[in-house]
Specification:
single chain; alpha/beta; Ubiquitin-like (UB roll); Translation Initiation Factor IF3; 2 domains; four-stranded mixed beta sheet
């Protein structure tokens, strides 16, 4: 920090430790909101801090980029606890999308095909994507149309719940397509 400017690669104090509280607030005047949510107006920081101490609470800078900065009188420990709980709840609600592979063969039996379709329905119902793969061995490569018919049959049986995200393509000895939930 030779030029007097902050280093853009280093996070500022408010970014890495949360909001400034009590004596960390260095500006002369702040817009104050009391513990009941009423706007008290622009006050000297020392006066706002005295009000917070009188109520046995903290003065917390909640909008540092505003002019003057907005500070609230509140219990900082309780505020941090509530923020942590909100963050945990939002993480719990998130679903990571996985790609599940369902393999079929050109000469697959009808019952085995129904089992694979049931698996694919389960994966799609859980919000995952399905990579439908038809594997070829030996002479089966000469009759790729049979494998494509099997894939088309699966797509037809899953059309009520799935949409095709990637068209059918040949990848060596595999024929693949990607399905997603409608």
């Amino acid at each position: 920090m030779i030029s007097g400017r902050p280093d853009p690669r280093r996070p500022s104090a408010s970014q890495d430790r949360g909001p400034r509280i009590n004596q960390q607030i260095r500006i002369k005047e702040v817009l104050v909101i009391d513990d009941e949510g009423r706007k008290l107006g622009v006050l000297a920081t020392a006066d706002a801090l005295a009000m917070a101490i009188q109520k046995s609470l903290d003065l917390v800078e909640i909008a540092p980029n505003q002019r003057p900065p907005v500070c609230r009188i509140m219990d900082y420990g309780k505020y941090k606890y509530e923020q942590k709980k909100k963050e945990q709840a939002s993480k719990r609600k998130q679903h990571q999308v996985h790609i599940k592979e369902v393999r079929v063969r050109p000469g697959i039996a009808e019952h085995d095909l129904q089992v694979r379709i049931r698996q694919a329905r389960q994966f799609l119902g859980d919000g995952d994507k399905v990579l439908l793969v038809c594997l070829f061995r030996g002479r089966q490569m000469a009759h790729k149309e049979v494998g494509e018919q099997v894939i088309q049959q699966v797509l037809k049986l899953l059309e009520d719940i799935a949409r095709v995200e990637a068209p059918i393509r040949q990848e060596g000895k595999r024929m693949v397509t990607m399905l997603g939930k409608k």
